[in-house]
């Protein structure tokens, strides 16, 4: 059976790459439009009812040609992260 039939009805959004932060944390990273996409482990997981990972979007640097961001994230105020929770700034990208 081919992967085309296995994934019928699915839409691929982007590719992700496995990375390791400078602190040794494994994560996934990629780009989607004008955003960085990060899949980070949930450091505060207390049990099976808590998610094992979080998907985070972060703005990319503005284009030098004056292009606009396509992310929808640009200009939003940063929400405080729970203590011990990774942020996109914690991982090199």
Describe this entry's structure for a reader.
With 93 residues, the chain is mainly beta. It has one helix and four strands; from the N terminus they run H-E-E-E-E. It has one helix at residues 3-6, and strands spanning 17-20, 26-32, 35-41, 53-59. Strands 1-2-3-4 form a four-stranded antiparallel β-sheet, with no helix packed on it. A hairpin with a 2-residue loop joins strand 2 and strand 3. Residues 76-80 have low confidence and may be disordered.
Low-pLDDT runs of 5+ residues are 76-80
Annotation field: number of helices: 1
The percent range for helix content is: under 10%
Percent in strands? 25-35%
Q: What is the mean pLDDT?
A: 77
Shape summary:
extended
| Computed structural class | mainly beta
Rounded radius of gyration (Å): 16 Å
**Sequence of secondary-structure elements:** HEEEE
- Biggest sheet overview: 4 strands, antiparallel
The count of β-strands is: 4
End-to-end separation: 36 Å
Within the largest sheet, what's the order of strands? 1-2-3-4
Compact summary:
The model is unreliable at about 75-80 (pLDDT under 50).
Give keywords.
four-stranded antiparallel β-sheet, 93 residues, mainly beta, extended, 1 helix
């Amino acid at each position: 059976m081919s992967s085309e039939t296995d994934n019928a009805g699915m839409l691929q959004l982007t590719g992700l790459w496995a990375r390791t932060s400078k602190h040794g944390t494994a994560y996934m990273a990629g780009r989607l439009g004008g955003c960085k996409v990060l899949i980070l482990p949930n450091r505060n997981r207390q049990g099976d009812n808590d998610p094992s990972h979080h998907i985070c979007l972060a703005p990319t640097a503005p284009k030098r040609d004056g292009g606009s961001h396509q992310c929808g994230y640009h200009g939003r105020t940063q929400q405080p992260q729970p203590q011990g929770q990774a942020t996109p700034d914690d991982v090199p990208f």
